[in-house]
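To close the section, here is one more complete example, presented without commentary so you can practise reading it yourself. The ligand is NAI.
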Amino acid sequence: MRVLVFSSHPHDEEFLTRANADHGHELVFVESRLRESVARLARGFEAICAFVNDDLSEPVLRALHDEGVRHIALRSAGFNHVDLDAARALGFTVARVPAYSPYAVAEHTVAMILALNRKIYRSYNRVRDGNFALDGLMGFDLHERTVGIVGTGKIGERVASVLSGFGCTLLGYDPYPNPAAIELGVEYVDLAELFSRSDVVTLHTPLTPETHHLIDAETLSTMKDGVMIINTSRGALVDTVAVIDGLKSGKVGYLGLDVYEEEEELFFENLSDRMITDDVFSRLLTFPNVMVTGHQAFFTEEAMTDIAETTMANLTAFEQGTPSGNEL
Ligand code: NAI
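Output:
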């Protein structure tokens, strides 16, 4: 089957091509992010493969449909960027990669907690500059600190597993408590209690209308002064403007983001020769206690292999008219 792969980078081409050896699809890779103006590139392709910042809103889906596309293979777990109602109405099948190495995102989450706490990013630069002074680098023992995990699915559970090894007190909030997390020592509480008791709040929920701006001015006001907030899930879980106010007042003591509300215009590209016009994002980068990575939490060899293999299996299932079980 002919498949057009949008938002393709050399690593996507490498892993998808390797996984395709067992499937024999004709893959065509384009760097362009999917949006309405480029949907016509899909003419003659029965399927497209899309990533997290591709636009799969109703007008784009309609344009793809007009070009003859019938299947959308998401190479991501999250699907908040797809208008599923419109996709169904147009007769598309949409499949995703519901599970891949949860260790990748969980380990990046813990890396952010440790790097922010011990200011590794600052000491790295200082030492390279011949500055061995310790002022401003003091951290805290994670041992016996309280970490609130919002969303205790596959990734949240792994975060709990790693942090239990540090001797943290673990609180969890999830509408569907996970027995494995309870086994790891997670105490389920309501969201208000989790926010008020946690030294570190880490987000592992999908982005839905319910979780949009889960962290905003109101919820921040209920948290401990100097709280650490980590978001490796989806940018819009956090109201960035409110969190900037929290950083300015000292309410937020540390902020680690792998995702950002308006990341579509920034992430996955080398913009080092250009001016960043997003003033909110630029403001974030001025704080010494903020660390941002560019949506790289998933980016391990194991996760990329899982993603590519499941994506290819989803495409083959569509071609053969048999459900893969990963359809939305
Ligand atoms: P999962 O589906 O295994 O777990 C999500 C959990 O969130 C479930 O237990 C669910 O019950 C819970 N949940 C749903 N609504 C909730 C709410 N209102 N409040 C609290 N919990 C709620 O998903 P998984 O694999 O653990 O992934 C979590 C998120 O991580 C994904 O939705 C995705 O947005 C993000 N992600 C980020 C990546 C990155 O590279 N930064 C890569 C992969 C996933």
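Once you have examined the tokens, check your reading against these statements. The first helix runs from residue 10 to 20. The chain has two domains: 2-100+301-320, 102-292.
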